[in-house]
Amino acid sequence: MNADEFLARAKLAVQDAQHFSEDGLRTRQNQGFRTVSFCGSAVFRIVEQKKGVKLELADKYFGSLEVSELDSYGQAKDGWTKINLTEEVAEAILGDLPSVYERCYSEQPVETFGCCSRYVQCSDERRCVNPDRDLARGCAYKAHLENGRIFYGMNRNVPLPT
Fold first, then answer.
1. Alpha-carbon distance 126 to 121, whole Å?
2. Which residue has the higher pLDDT, 33 or 75?
3. Considering the domain 3-107 in this protein, what is its CATH number?
């Protein structure tokens, strides 16, 4: 598998993440490798060498990528684990990319607030309807909706305090 094919498959796989947005996926060409970042966090590098394609996985995410059982990796001293790109490795990594994206998404710093002016519409639709995804990340009411607690509108399921 070549680097471009793996990168294309990775971009498709990560779109399954619940909070995926095109803005959260970045690829940057560096000298000798490409860095792929999710929500501002570098997740893996693609290194093309004469001997084949290598991946360097950020140690922070290595545990959540199911390649720890595979024997073809070596520890790098700069915070990246090096692994030969094989079909087996690609399948293991691609399957876990949506969860890695979600982790990066949730670890982004965000300014929180109670709710916006759309709280009744959000309640009626049982989900956040704010079109500004970055702003919506900080909405505390969105977390309640995701956990099934609806305080307003026709779907209210949390009783009023007595």
1. 8
2. 33
3. 3.90.1150
25 compared with 108, residue with greater pLDDT: 25
What backbone torsions phi and psi does residue 57 show, to the nearest 5 degrees?
-100, 135
Confirm if 76 and 82 have CB atoms less than 8 A apart.
yes
Query: Radius of gyration of the chain from Cα atoms?
Result: 20
Which residues, 6 or more positions from 13, have their beta carbon under 8 angstroms from its beta carbon?
Answer: 94, 95, 97, 98
Nearest to 86 by CA among 59, 67, 61: 67
Give Cα separations from 151 to 113, 128, 129, 143 (angstroms).
16, 13, 15, 12
pLDDT at 64: 56
pTM, rounded to two decimals: 0.70
Q: Distance of CA 28 to CAs 7, 54, 65, 152, Å? A: 12, 16, 21, 44
Q: Which of 64, 59, 60 is nearest to 73 (CA)?
A: 59
In Å, how far are 28, 46, 54, 59, 161 from 34, measured between CA atoms?
6, 5, 11, 17, 55
**Domain residue spans in the chain?**
3-107, 110-162
Q: How confident is the model at residue 104 (pLDDT cuts 50, 70, 90)?
A: very high
- CB 113 within 8 Å of CB 138: yes
Closest residue by Cα to residue 109 from 24, 40, 42: 40
